Amino acid sequence: MRLGLALGYWGRGPSPDHVPLAQEAERLGYHSVWTAESWGSDVFTPLTWIAAQTSTIRLGTAVAQMAARSPTTTAMHALTLDHLSGGRMMLGLGLSGPQVVEGWYGRPFPKSPLTATREYVDVVRQVLRREAPVELDGRFHSHPYRGADGTGIGKALKPITHPLRPDLPVLLGAEGPKNVAQTARIADGWLPLYWAPSRPEAYGEAVAALPEGFVVAPLARVQVCDDVSEGLLPVKAMLGFYIGGMGHAARNFHADLMARMGYEEEARRIQELFLGGRRQEAVLAVPDAFADEISLVGPRERIAERLELWRKGPVTDLLVLAPDTRTLRVLAELNS
């Protein structure tokens, strides 16, 4: 199982720790470093900054939001960074949810998310292969555009720049069983959220029959500390926000996933509290047991024991949300 460093997205401003953490991860032999985006910092600029100050560590997006860019624009970002970094780029994509897509990007959330994702990946693949001008008679991502409000003179094009790698890895963030099954068919890898080694069935039957060489790279908070309960607080804070606030009360993919993992009553209670303005109570309502399942927190010996569970399943890469270099070092030692 390879290790990756997940840096997430910025909060109020850029973190001065991100580049030093990435450099330390590279020194320790971590395979990859990953950035994210929500509705603040973008995913590619920080990754480019890190690329310029590292030399061997792979560079991934976990995830680049599809609604933020047309698929050709995303492919341009990926092929550009792949050239500048000497072939280190891995493109992780995610659809996000209706609140973000419509509220932040000002676009309609697709009525058929699976189709929209499939078309998006198709266009990205066409750009990276550069075998012919990009053409797709799609429902969401037609190339050239053929809508009634267009001029009708759009021309099919292929990229001027020759991609460094036509097979640049494309990974997808997916939560629902149908989405996971499609991901196994059309992508090179999967970025699970809230992976619990003992509950792979929560993601559907496809997890039991993934293609050979398929990358499974969940994100997990890891922290070496003496007090497990205290170490779980950041995990619970994250879960309180995502389960409670990253979606509508009637449509929240994160809450639905938590429910499928056996915590339906708790997920609805977190939503109720968060949406009612009682955010701290929502965080405290997150069960320690659930936060513990999806993270690696506690003394070195406890992390070592629980790490074996992560190695036994389909996980190929563990993307580590770690707050300090000590934790990165201990995990590297345990995984060697």
UniProtKB/TrEMBL annotation:
Cited CDD domains: Tetrahydromethanopterin_reductase
Protein keywords: Oxidoreductase
Signal peptide: none
InterPro entries named in the record: F420-G6PD/mer, F420_OxRdatse_Rv3520c_pred, Luciferase-like_dom, Luciferase-like_sf
SUPFAM superfamilies: Bacterial luciferase-like
One Pfam family this sequence matches: Bac_luciferase
Annotated Luciferase-like domain residues: 17-315
GO molecular function: oxidoreductase activity, acting on paired donors, with incorporation or reduction of molecular oxygen
Name of the protein: LLM class F420-dependent oxidoreductase
